[in-house]
Structures
1.
Amino acid sequence: MSSLDPADWEAFRKQSHRMLDDAIDFISRVAQRPVWQPVPDEIKNAFAAPMPQEGRTLEAVHESFLHEILPYATGNIHPRFFGYVHGSGTPSGMLAEMLAATMNANLGGREHGAIYVERQVICWFADLFGFPRDASGLLVTGTSLANMIALLVARRAQLGPSIRTDGIDPARARLVAYASAASHGCISKALDMMGIGSAALRKIAVDTEYRMNVRALREAIAEDRAHGLTPFVVVGTAGTVDVGAIDDFAAIADVAEAEDVWFHVDGAFGALVALSEELRPLVAGIERADSIGFDFHKWLHVPYDAGCVLVRDSALHRDTFSASEPYLARLHRGLAGGEPWFCDYGPDLSRGFRALKVWFTVQQYGARALGDAVARNCAQAKHLADLVDAQPSLERLAPVPLNIVCFRYVVRSLDRAETNALNAQIVAELQESGVAAPSTTMIEGKLAIRVNLTNHRTQDTDLVLLVREIMNAPAVRKYSQEDALQLPPNA
Ligand SMILES: *Cc1c(COP(=O)(O)O)cnc(C)c1O
């Protein structure tokens, strides 16, 4: 008896079914639970316990999970989770995770079925974005890493093979990158981690719709060239994190082409509008990108974590990461055959079977229903914007091009700092009440209640309830209705 397998498979089977039943109960009844609740101190303290030397029964460990972990979830599977940009998952995604663990596949490379699943998923999304079928791709933790991988390929394109052996040499080239001022923080973080430095990111001004000002982009590139710097990548965003703006990809592609710089699209959630016939024109021009980073765990509702990078030039992609090691020798037959070896396309050697949960999701729902869920969220955002606009004491702070609504509660007698504090308090109260969980952001110095809809469980009634709860939040009750700022309609 030395293996870690159960001694009694029948007992294991019974316990497994109980655990699955509990999981299904949890998901199917999630709407009846608070969206979020704080982790009690005694539970936090219990996590300080040292590593157990002796094990417990699976049943006992599961009891701990049920009482000490499961109730204190982020809340993103709840219909009234509106914070950040979180996907809401699906029950079948949960099962696919279990099946992937059953195989315990390692997708670094080698000849086995899981590799073909990942390759198929990559081809589906290459097709969706108008990339050639022979484009390369890689499933990764999320768009943060997908973007960094793309920037590494862009750097390899600019500097040639010596960047891999000799590293960065500022005497040879000082690289600069471009993205809109509304771009995600992971772009500057990637430059930081790449040794290029976050100061090498030119944050290009945005227009009134929060899209990159492409004329300003052209000017910034010209100015950098005049100073002897080397522009190497322009990042367009599909769905900025604050307001959901989508850059003009055709115009950016024209600039990138004329300037001979790499064009990458950060499409974390917004690129998925391509699944909807009706919304697809919003990302027109994305097919001209050199690379795209996007997430399955946000608007495709695949359980965390799952993102993807696509690269048009697969040879360049492989040249950025491949290395030959004798212990990873490729043969033409047996387990060492097979193509591609995904370890040649990114930093990881051992890689899990993330592709299976994506494959299950797309196979089960089909692209149309997934696109419809995206479109429904966008329609709901417009509906929420109307509800906000109809309330004199709510002020909308940004246009609603996609699925995000930013607004705040305003009181005539309060200055900006006090208004910001009031709105932060409203959001904290909402979250702590367990009724709804929006998050906050800053729009031109104004703290916004930010409602993001990447949630297939949200109903229109949830949005009505959200607005009512905001209007009745304890933080605003002390202000009389007359004190509420009277804004002109649709201000
Ligand atoms: C979420 C997001 C990212 C980061 O993606 P992760 O999957 O969280 O790593 C990057 N860009 C945008 C626009 C995002 O919304």
2.
Amino acid sequence: MDENNVKKHRAWIEINSKNLENNIIEIQKSIPTKCKIMAVLKANAYGHGIIQIGKCLNKIGITDFAVATITEGINLRQNNIKGNILILGYTHPDDIKKLIKYNLMQTIIDYDYAQKLNNLNSKIMVHIGINTGMNRNGENYQNIDNIIKIYEMQNLDVKGIYSHLCVADSSKENDINFTINQINNFETLIKQLKEKNIKIGKAHIQSSYGLLNYPKSQYDYVRTGSLIYGIYNTPNETLKLQLNLKPVLTLKSRITSIKEIEAGETVGYGRLFEASSDKKIASVSIGFADGYPRDLSNKNMQVKINNKFATIIGRICMDQLMIDISNIENVQVGDIVTLIGNEEEISAMKIAEEENTITCELLSRFGNRVERIIV
Ligand SMILES: *Cc1c(COP(=O)(O)O)cnc(C)c1O
């Protein structure tokens, strides 16, 4: 990549389009030929940059997308992203005309919601959400009469039906049984609808862990976010399906100032770090408002600079953080600091684990001040 392109950026995310393509191919190899990837681009594509990721995916032939909100869907359309876009979350009925204007598909949250939308006299495309045990959105799978009525509603053009698994990432026996039950109940519903000659449209239930742990299932879509970005929830999971995924995101920032401090001096807010010996330290232009968690202050978190690891010291500030560069030679203002990368020490998974969360939460919080660049 041309260093000049990012010369002035204070903090940025690099999207590795080769790795993205690798992940898509890995997923495609492991799903039935009739099954397509529905790429989940919600939450700014899990922090990766919704437009950058949407464009890369369009280029490599992906034409089915899911988002959480209508605003995300409109943003994709306004940036010329082609294909089907399904909104997974609730859209206020007042915004229904926008679904048509921007050619978006809406999830039917439940029977009452279907009635409300049907009464608006605008014909819209929908997928019916089915609740098989998560108890978030979705009409209960037992209410087959209501589900049939939704299919028959004049103003709803039903393109698909789907459910969502809530413990597919677990290897506990109880959870496996629960998931198998969810899948069975969904399949029974589909069979019953087909027996009544209803054109059910596309059926889908697997998200990333649904594919990883229940890979034998046969559906029209696998709705996946995490896998396309090459991220697992946590390290060392046992999975039925092994994919050779590569992380798509690298988080970088820059050194803005270098100081020598003496033993006994402290660094940053709260004077949390105290130097045990003379040290050379540097400040870096990224902070918790950009998405690097403040919780990780003074916890020996590593960053990489000139191919060597340095430790984050003191309290992470809103816009900056400080690192100990005593053992690294020739560091200069403007040098690039990698905070999330492919090495184990700075992998998103490891940083998320230190923060007691999953990789998706860590990455989806990277904010607007962080530029997204395709490399
Ligand atoms: C977020 C979400 C997905 C994608 O989940 P991953 O685990 O990242 O693949 C799929 N389906 C629904 C309904 C979702 O809310």
3.
Amino acid sequence: MLYKSTRNNALRYTASQAVLKGLSDDGGLFMPTNLPVLDKELKELAEMDYKGVAYEVMKLYLTDYSEEELKYCIEHAYDDKFDIADKVELKRAGGAYYLELFHGPTIAFKDMALSILPYLMTTAAKKNELKEEIVILTATSGDTGKAALAGFADVPGTRIMVFYPKDGVSKIQEKQMVTQKGANVKVIGIKGNFDDAQNGVKAMFGDAELKEELKNRGYVFSSANSINIGRLVPQVVYYVYAYTRLLKDGVISEGGEINICVPTGNFGNILAAYFAKKLGVPVGKLICASNKNKVLTDFFKSGTYDKLHVMDESGNFNEKREFMLTSSPSMDILISSNLERLIYLICGEDDLKCAAFMKKLSTEGSYDIDSLMKGRLKDFEAGYAGEEDCAAMIKKIFEEDGYVIDPHTAVAGAVYEEYRKNSGDTKNCVIASTASPYKFPEAVLKALGVEAAGEELTDKLNEVSKVDLPRAITELKNAEILHDTVCEKDEMKEQVRAFLK
Ligand SMILES: *Cc1c(COP(=O)(O)O)cnc(C)c1O
């Protein structure tokens, strides 16, 4: 199996080349030439541990990695950086199964992929006899940045630069990033929002002149953003794993369908769930949950992706869409990059058509899909939760089940509850729990009606939730600030040049 671009079907790259490149030169995203299916029974996978399932899933996508190479990557990624032996855990609450994906070093689900990406990348560099040093350029809405920094810090042959919206991430997210140690890391706040940061990074990936200049200095760019297939593939694993645990525990029987609900921003995590379905995991609906930046909800309901206008009750796009900061900042996104992969699939892998949609999005701010394409979205449901619904959900789950969830997860919980009520679909549902509540203690405690501020927030949350403080939080308390650069959004390129002197 090889990889092609969503904007050029003629391209062919091996998996390791696609991991190294991150993004195709034409601006497209890499897609497998054919989506694989599992070559083992799910009940066989149910007898394996997380690493075993990871190997069985990842080998299907990363076909040019040898068994030894892939197992080496998996062994080093999923070690005791994770605070539970199983790596992920299902918790029953609110009539659903919350899949806790936040037991890694930065207490957000992005650790699941970013702890293995550096190994996939350095292995790929060796396989392809890359001479240059790899420079990871990343835009973050909060969680990717720290998870990427933690993954790449002091990895030989790599450097990492992270751009985050200075006023668009939580205090804890910012502190996690600006205290990052490592001789090869640089963290920069930009005066703009996440889309500005992401556009700036994308522009540099497409800047042939800059790339040539840096190549002469011995550097080559790669991406740790969720557009890299080396991010996407490890995320498929936990949906397969979750299914096999439900099977093992007798919650479902062989062939029994589950629904999956995912709090969504850049559409990476839910796309991984879709890939799991394509692998042969019996999944009914994929429920795409947004916060009030509901561009995806509007898209799934109408077939129009409009980053400039918001859909009203009667389905019209007249009112201007504002970018809103919410208590779930990692979902404050209006340009959902990974959606391009779904668009590509539903337009019948028509690269020219897909490229035309993306062009229209960047020049006119919107595009409409036709009814044939819309018909291919039947696997998906979509909904959004505002700030009040999200807070109410945190409170409700705590009061009913004594279980504390973070605001991102609560958005998904609220959207799922609404879906179940409206559809009557009571299939078992797995909700991706994407961050530890300790990452967003202010919003969580406020939702629970508990007064606290500043340094006492996490201790207070500990008292209320009775969940042990994660290592990521205790370490942060006395950590030294090591990064304080802030730049304008059009100065990002100069910052890169300066770092790579
Ligand atoms: C990144 C992130 C999301 C959104 O994931 P996507 O793959 O971008 O859709 C949701 N919740 C948390 C906590 C995140 O960090």
